[in-house]
Amino acid sequence: MRKDDRTVPELPDLTVYIEHLDRRVVGERLLDIRLASPFVLRSVSPAIEEVRGARVTGLRRLAKQLVFGLEHDLFVVVHLMISGRLRWYEKGRAVPKRSGLAAFDFSTGTLIFTEASKKKRASLRLVRGQEALADLDPGGLEVLDIDPVAFRTRLRASSHTLKRTLTDQRIFAGIGNAYSDEILLHAGLSPFKRARDVDDEEAERLYAACRRTLTEWVRILRGKAGDEFPDKVTAFHDEMAAHGKYRQPCPVCGAPIQRIVHAENESNYCARCQTGGRVLADRSLSRLLRDAWPKRIEELEGVKGVRG
Length: 308
Description:
Helix content is 28%, strand content 21%. By secondary structure, it is an alpha+beta fold. Helix 1 (11-25) crosses helix 7 (200-225) and helix 4 crosses helix 7 (200-225).
């Protein structure tokens, strides 16, 4: 799995998952849940036996979690985390030995839950009642459901950077590392500008960029999947403008896309469009280059041997 794929599926990916699952399982019965990994199930009650045979009443997204609503006020909550994925097969499909976590057997087919990472962060929870389900909601607002005033108010209440604010599920729901890069490029804002310092015009641009980017990527991913269940959910797409495009030309101004790497996350941005031409210091590369680290986009041509 390439580095750019190590990103939690976000609002567009999960929306398309839900649309395909809706056509396949709503109104059908969940016949069984087969666990391949004992660690994936993070709840004790209700037990799997209590959801067997229950009819699926609907699907929804809760931040970055997928929720299967069942009759009898029961819910199955799947959190894919970084490398969890779903695939749809004929009924009774075996769970893969190396990456398989669980299988959900419906009367129409089998949904396989896998995770490529050895860290096993993905999770499955069985929940009874709306109150217990609400406890799993981190509280972030849905950008596609709120007006500009609510967006601006929530944005400015954060003391963090714009990048961290957009990806914090307690602030806004469903946005992660990949689409935040796209949003911030289209808004022309630095990922490291403080959210509380955004003025009215910048907040309006960011709000519009959020809605436009998320809506457009739902449309793109729908087209990529077509009638087939999406089986190549990734954080990297050729159509992306910034994310995963390090050193490639910005589609807006042509300057090379820059990046900041921190832990498992990578922030991609255009210095000309977003930071007034200033190249932000990447911790590892700036330590290596020291005084030779370019401060402006114009200086990059003079830096030799920098490798990402």
